[in-house]
Fold these 2 entries.
Entry 1:
Amino acid sequence: MTRLYLSNDTSARAAGTERLAQAWASAPGLELVRTSARGAFFLEPLVERDLPGGRMAWSNATPDDLPNILAGIGGTPVNRIAFLADQQRVTFANFGMTRPLALEDYGSLGGWQGLERAGSLSPDAIIGELKTSRLRGRGGAAFPVWSKWQVAKDAAADQKYVVANADEGDAGTYCDRMIMEGEPFRLIEGMLICARAIGATRGFIYCRQEYPAAARTLREAIAAAERAGWLTDERGRFHLEVFVGAGSYVCGEETALLESLEGRRGVVRAKPPYPALSGLYGKPTIVSNVLTFATVPSILARGGDWHASLGTEGSRGTMALQIGGRVKQPGLVEIPFGATLAEVIERFGGGMAAGARFKAVQIGGPLGSLFPASRLDIPICYDAFSKAGAILGHGGIVVYDDGTDMVELARHFMAFTADESCGKCTPCRIGSVRSREILEQLQAGRSRPGDLDLLADLGETMKGASLCALGQRAPYPVLTAIEHFPDEFR
Amino acid sequence: MSEPVLAAILTRHRTSPPNILHTLLEIQETLGSVSPGAIPEIARSLDVTEADVAGVLSYYPELRTAKPGRHVIRVCLGESCMANHGATVLARVRAHLKIEVGETTRDGRFTLERVYCVGNCAVGPSLMVDGEVVGRVSPDQVPALLDSYP
């Protein structure tokens, strides 16, 4: 019996692993094991096999490659794939090797060690470990994680909640999806550690509706973890549920997410009070994104000092970067903070796709700034981005080629914001529509003198007077497009 | 007159506090859409106002007031797909089906929507058909791809 490994991740399937699995389903003497994804999506469909010399991989495989794979002809040792070997993976260390729903796979590669260590610590000691680690929230706001936990822990309440923000709405990002589909137990473990630290007995995973496979996998994973006893400790049972959203981008904002979780319109709440004090149903609630929770188990297992030893002064640990757009090698890259944007695009992205010339790169999703070629020396860390008036966001990196029409791109961003604004505050609701209209007039050749000043003025108002990051950040991609490519806006 | 199916769902969702979104999503999953005519009955059952129900129903893009076509095609316009000519893919889908975004073909086969990112950015441009992601879609493949759905 020959065992072949094929990823069951949505992107791997979309690239063709599902087609291979169907084609080979009845091949004699073959066992197909469906795994998480390595994140080297440019190589998918990727077929792997254990040979005496180690794990071998056949990339961009077609159904006709089976005889060669079975004969051991061709293929590359996995540890010689530079895209993977050059990374320093922690959270994604086991991706590509494990079966997502196999508890024995997760446990045999270090799973649950963080939770077990947390079980031997007091809540204050768990939070102390996070403080030492200097972990900042990976969802975009980059707030020190321990500080939120401390507030929720110190609050007196009959009920506290742990909520995973799995509404990974920033276009260009997919690491949360990979975690939920590939190693759901890691997310669950991180949430359990948080619950223990703050004294919560209920949790929710708010998963976006665009990720049906993630929601399915999570539900099965919760049931499996529950059967194996992981959801119960001496405090009793932790009730964990998956809630699937209904297609609203702003529900990725933590207070809008809580409104949506309570079943209402996903409209942003004014802060303070912050959710750590008054969150779901007015109770202390920790809302963190999936990648943040998934980072916690390693910190508990290996110690806060270990985590703090990676990265840069203000940005400790590793970051999951998701490279997309017009590069040769799109995929997931986990490395310590500090590499420059140019290094990441060249070394991991492999440079531009065939026939494409670099024009601009956008980091941080639809609210992130655009950088031209002259600005690629910026190091990937929270402080450098903040100093440049940009955001690292959730680590999405989208590269645009020289065929990109910047006016159309700018219009697209404002149309997106106008579509997705929750409508609660005027600057965002009206400002996005007016900005879109100005750009449409420009496209139609009907712009009036002063229109670009008006656009900048609207942008400043949105930045300064909107309630949440959607309105505050929406002007950035548009204004940086004008700043770096002024000729196209004349 | 209330449908028994609707009534059964509403009975299950008489929780305290009620969850309007949860309720509407389950109604849609079972009946295909949430009829605006059902708003009064839903509101009565959950003990909320009709405005509360109508507000949630109109807020979320995924909640529908009319049944969609047999297949829902959602073309991704996230940034990575945009960089890889997702807009051209959308144009080809519109041309082939002869409908605009938000419309359903006359024969009831397809409903066309756009979506801002399906998390398939490394394998784009993407579209989603009935919840399954199709990647690396070239505009020229669009007609054959669509024709493969009954």
Entry 2:
Amino acid sequence: MSATQAALPPQRNLAGAGTGGGDRPVDRRRGSTLLRHLAFALAAALLLLGVSYAVEPFRNFQLATVAAYLCATAGLTVLTGLNGQLSLGHGALMATGAYTVALCQNAFADRGMTGGWLLPLSLGAAVLSTVAVGAVVGVAAARLRGPYLAGVTLAVAVVVPALAVTFDGVFNGEQGLSVPVEPPPMSLGPYFPYERWQLWLAGAATLLALLLLANLIRSRYGRTFRAVRDDEVAARLAGIHVARTQVLAFVVSAATAGLGGALLAVLAQSVSPGAFSLTLSLFLLMAVVIGGLGRLAGALWGAVLLVALPDLTHSATELLTLSPAVAQRLEGNLPLAIFGVTLIVVMIAAPGGVQGLLSRLGRALLARWSARRS
Amino acid sequence: MDRFVFLTIDGLSRGAVYAAFALALVLIWRAARVVNFAQGAMAVAAAYVAYSVSASTGSYWLGFLVAILAGLVLGALVDRAVMRFVDHASPLNPVIVALGLVLLIQAVLGMVYGSEFRPADAPFSRSALTVGGVAVLSPYDLFVFAAIGAVVVGLAWLFARTAVGLRMRAAAFAPEISRLLGVNVGGMLTLGWALASGVGALAAMLVIPTELGLHPHAMDLVFVSAFTAAVVGGLDSPPGAVVGGLVVGLLLSYVSGYAGSDLTPLAVLVLLLAVLLVRPGGLFAPVTARRV
């Protein structure tokens, strides 16, 4: 049985261009894919810049967190949605990136080194270390199918936080490490809000990652990813090296997960095993499924949900008058319950996720509009 | 030598629990081609029900009984209310839905009972009896062996000797033909889920007193170990699940005894990867040709 025949119902990508869409011959007429993606990224960067000045610091921080999660969910979308490999271990990969950035930043701080180039260097190191880990897991993953792959990555998700406790000489056990991050450069003025600086950092890194991913998806490699997902036998007959493709997809998605984890560590200025539990891995999976598997835009919806839902339930529990103990229990667990129910309902009722629903809605409106015009 | 004997017995006792849990995974896999990733969470839910009953009535055994009943009901419920509606065209879909169940069940347990560890009592002493100066079995180990042995024998009898067992096997292997012959295939599937979940609940009741206690995440690592056990034996083979469980139990016991208990999760991962990379079908699977 070739178990991974299709990740999920094969999705017809009718959503906007640059969101991991299909290979339409029409695109050739619209010029270079890279230029179009660059224009998208530039527009997004300008929008983010404007938003960073318009909203209060806390919202800036939240948006920065969305950006960090988006890195990881976008990578997972490529892996699960486009290549059909299910990973429950992306929380562990995020932890790898986060711990690398913490160790690097601490090493720099201990040596008294300063400078704006240190953080990008640490982030790069985080990506490299996750690429290494991702390659190891990916080689194993390429030989495994469906539930077996899920089981192995589940084991990875459970084991990696335990490792941080085992080797507590390096990782400082349950307490974790602090991540020293330099303040925004003085050239931005003495009263530049720190949260805005965080949004700029996370936003820039994420946009770069998304730009690379979007191009990868539209390239030859993206097509081989989808071919392997849809039918391994056909892909092999067409001359695609299936295992190599699967390892590549795993490595790419590991790199972005590592970057996402590193950004989270930089934002929180600390890292601990508790922040990268199995639940985080399940959250990431849930985010990409709810957002819509196979589209980068879906990853954005998922990342927004990950940040917004706990915040919303917090506000909701504050509105109700509850005893502090009950409120505390609800606050931690209500988002989990909502996530769980949503995951089940979406899988059963709308496997295309939010983005699938939106594009279906858009198509319906478009059809009605064009019917009225004719 | 004493230490080796002690670790072996301890490993077999743990392994028996993993075997039962792996058996539950194999039951559902054979019936529905689904690896039930929610099994750990479902078993913990049953254990919490037992905790409530025991706490209010003061009777451990009533709680024990209720846990198994709760497991049976929960399994049937999960099949009837959720899994039945999942599109099984891709093997990923049921896995993702099961993970949604994990989040939901653990969240509900956390809301109702809080997420602190609750002490769980063992019905028998866990201190080992000595035979000729060597610590061997504790009464609790004996109880574990007896309970799991009864379940294994009971299931074997059910599948090999009864009409219901025959129908269940038929429904799992050839659903269309069974339906034509008048077998209630959907009902057999629900029965399979209920049985598996009941066995899982029993395993949880046996393992939780030997761990830190009752907690919404208490079975996470046990699930990983049991999944490994099921994979070692081959997901299709019930005897394989039992042997796999004992192998994993022994391995974990030796690793934690000789190398430190912190390394047991890593040992499970290494074993799982080694088995999957060398014999993906498990040690007990017949060698079959695989497409691609």
